[in-house]
Amino acid sequence: MDLVFKALADPTRRSLLDELFRQDGQTLSALEQRLPMTRFGVMKHLKVLEEAGLIVTKRRGREKHHLLNPVPIRLVHDRWVSKYAEPWVATLSELKTEMENSMEKVYEIYIKTTPERLWEAITSSDMREKYNFGVRVSSDWSEGSPYEATHPAAPTLLSEGENLEVDPPHKLVQSFRALWSDDVKREGTSRVTWEIEQVADSCRLTVTHDELAEHANDELYGGWPMILSGLKTLLETGQTLTTPGSLMYGADAQSAA
Asked: Would the pTM count as exceeding 0.70?
């Protein structure tokens, strides 16, 4: 987390994050026009932000686009803030951080584990429910097969889709259709891509949720930082992480209700 604090300590880098919050997916040329410094200076600041995991880059043709990654900030929150703050405060803070008018959301996190173990955590119903608010995902995980997401407290399916590409333990591409309310049903089908890359004794997990409508309901993607933080905690410590989502929807909360 030292890299995150170092990156956030500089007002210019905070300004760059504000610009990406205002309009995600900007190119270097677009960001350069918004700051009173040279192109090389902007590049140096973007490199620091990328090394801290606060932004990720995606190539689209010849252009490189920079996207805000809220997961590291979520991890800071979960470590030092959520223990003391009321769950609704964390929820409001996350909504402020996550609200962006974009067709693509990218989340990146490093987890000290193996690709095989990470793949198991993504595809195992028993493991999935521990960090995904008690939701179980069932499938045979073959290419072209369907999957379904259920919760013991929900009378119907919460989401469903198709496994479009299955390449264990490296990549999983899925269509995604939310079903938990009429509002999210109207959003139609989007796509979620899980990409696993081994880095020394850890894995870089990149989750891309795209093919979203320009002003998509934030319920479709707002929970990703909490889910990925919970996944990291489970694999690295064997413990479950308390988040606003787990308090509202988790199995423990339902049994205590």
From this structure: no
